[in-house]
Amino acid sequence: MFVGGITRMERVISNDIEPPYLSLVTGPPGSMKTSFSLSMISNHLKRTGEFGLYCTVEETVDSLLKTCNSMGLELPTNLQITDLTELRKENEAMDYLKFTKRMIQHFKQERGSQFSVFILDSLGAIYSLTSVDEEMRKKMFGFFDFLRTQGLYTFIITERQPGEHAELQGNEGFIADGIINLGLDRRNGKIVRTLQIEKMRHVRHSMEKQAIDISSGSVTILGPLFD
Ligand SMILES: Nc1ncnc2c1ncn2[C@@H]1O[C@H](COP(=O)(O)OP(=O)(O)OP(=O)(O)O)[C@@H](O)[C@H]1O
Ligand SMILES: [Mg+2]
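Above: the input entities. Below: the structure tokens describing the complete assembly.
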């Protein structure tokens, strides 16, 4: 997934991950959480022919396709994009987690083990649509647990400001197997895009912040950044 999907990622991690594996992709607005995830999973799906489900809660499919066009990224046909932004308008009392769970079960039934990748964009959007109380936290825990039992590579996109912890509601960071933090660093009047692995269970990885570049539809590791 990582080594095949991101150019020079083998310099950052010593071995790749095996599903089930749940990673948080965190970062501030514009740090390319969406582009990074789309590019990595597209590469994976093109290479393996497996099936992936991308669930967008805050951005319309139209907007996602514009992002891809701008990056020169062609989405594979074996990636299904589901737009929850439409549902949001129709039904305010909607249980998004339950809906998403059913959708995953449906594709598991239809595709079996070919269905291997699931992305949720984003966790913050789900939280903003529901009241977050103890009940919701339990539900989210159950949802993460469910994702793990499905044997999927899961990427949960999570907004996060620099210096903040990865968890939005207290426990996501502990439940996740991996945390990949994307960022924007200001250097010499310029903004540099960065990637830093904060956590990756079962993998020996670099702790350094890496400069990255996204061009012609793929993410490239440029090398570690030093202060
Ligand atoms: N063709 C391109 N090549 C490189 N960078 C681009 C290109 N097109 C857009 N960008 C950059 O991508 C950024 C948006 O990326 P993306 O939508 O993936 O970020 P995000 O972290 O998901 O943001 P949000 O929190 O708003 O969802 C833009 O702000 C712009 O800097
Ligand atoms: Mg986004």
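Note for the figure: The two ends are 30 Å apart (CA to CA).
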